[in-house]
Amino acid sequence: MATPAPYIQLKKLEVAYNDYVSGLRGVSLDVNRGEFIFLCGQTGSGKSTIIKVLSCQVKPTKGDAVIDGRSLASVTPEEVPMLRRKIGIVPQDFGLLPNKKVWENVGYAMRAVGRSKHEVRDEVPAILERVNILHRADAYPTELSGGEQQRVAIARALINNPPLLLADEPTGNLDPGHSDEIINILLDLNSQGTTIVVATHDIMQVERANQRVIQLAGGMIDKGDHDEELLQHMHEDPLEFPTES
Ligand SMILES: Nc1ncnc2c1ncn2[C@@H]1O[C@H](COP(=O)(O)OP(=O)(O)OP(=O)(O)O)[C@@H](O)[C@H]1O
Ligand SMILES: [Mg+2]
Fold first, then answer.
1. Closest-approaching ligand to the CA atom of 52
2. Phi, psi of 38 (to 5 degrees)
3. Mind listing the pLDDT tens digit for each residue in 107-153?
4. Which ligand has an atom closest to residue 43 CA?
5. Which is deepest, 51, 83, 227, 236, by most CB within 10 Å?
6. pTM to 2 decimal places
7. Residue-range domains of the chain with CATH
8. How far apart are CA 216 and CA 17, in angstroms?
């Protein structure tokens, strides 16, 4: 039996934001359906750029990103809304409407993709329940903690029951307890079959979740060779600590 093609493929993906700034400098990566991956790396290493390419906010400059067989380098603006329907996006800043209640935030997102008022009434409670925020359905975003707002942002990303969820720094400003809750929700969605890509600085959560980690450095995948090289070098040529004699 032939092995199925990877769900996401980055093929020597390059993103140049302008003549001087590169977001990605040749990243190749396969992600299988149902995988959970963390994108890690220092500020400016290219984590958000990968999320933005996968969510069609930024186009590849060279190389390609393919989701479920569809090349994103050749996507036309007209095709973007259709593609986005299969992708849940949780932006770093939540992007909630401040003057709408929790359930309305999710409801408006559903209406924006053409769902009926009927469907909103029927489906919103279950979506809020999935991320454990149904009890605050009537609250406004400003009345919620950061972790609760994050859960509403995830709820909104789930409206089309997307097979792929992209989250940029979902535990960015949360304390460890609330970070645990958010990652547990993502792990739970993953165990139900959703493929998940998370960009994060949160090493504690990465270690706790025990999922695949892609380490980025300077817009490329860092395979850790430098450390090994350095260790090897140190082994061969140990530094001597200057001591006074
Ligand atoms: N809109 C933009 N215009 C110009 N340069 C950009 C833009 N967005 C990102 N960059 C640059 O691309 C590089 C990668 O940025 P990216 O946002 O992907 O990093 P990151 O790993 O998400 O960083 P952080 O951890 O700070 O969120 C950085 O050098 C950044 O300055
Ligand atoms: Mg980022």
1. 1
2. -105, 135
3. 999 998 889 999 999 999 999 999 999 999 999 999 999 899 999 99
4. 1
5. 51
6. 0.89
7. 1-86+164-230 (3.40.50.300), 93-161 (no CATH)
8. 18
